[in-house]
Amino acid sequence: MESDTPLTDEQCTEATILKAGKTAVRRTPADIDATIVSEHFFTAAQGVEGAFGGGARLGMLIYDGKEKPVPKALELLTFCVLVLRNGFTVTGESACVRPENFDPQIGRDIARKNAREKIWQLEGYLLKQRLHEAPAMPVRAVEIYSQPDCCFQYCAAPNLCKTAGRCVNG
Known about the structure:
By secondary structure, this protein is an alpha+beta fold. The protein contains six helices and five strands, in the order ααβαββββααα.
């Protein structure tokens, strides 16, 4: 049964890649999602209140020893921090121009999408580096070592991984 939900750009791209029969080692949307272990959202106003609130009244901050209101514009800027499996973090932002258009969930969704986009570049670089470090390996071994959870560069038993057909260190 077909869904009435339109495909995202990423889903369309993935479907095009699969339809074209492109099977070389690569990162997939599922690989990108698997790197994320936690996500955290806050507005710039919440961040400033946390950093400079110091006992000030709600909506106020203490800066240079004086209590000042948190600028309203900071309530329209949403941040997303994604913590990756290896402990690295990526951030995304979403800014709204008009307060009447601000929606917290939409802000979080856009900020998360922007943060997640950054993971593609990081994972692409990591895959390319792993392929570069393993030029003489058989293709199957390169595929094993190119999995997101493989620790090839620190591997103590690469032949065990080749025999098992998967990374056994993760």
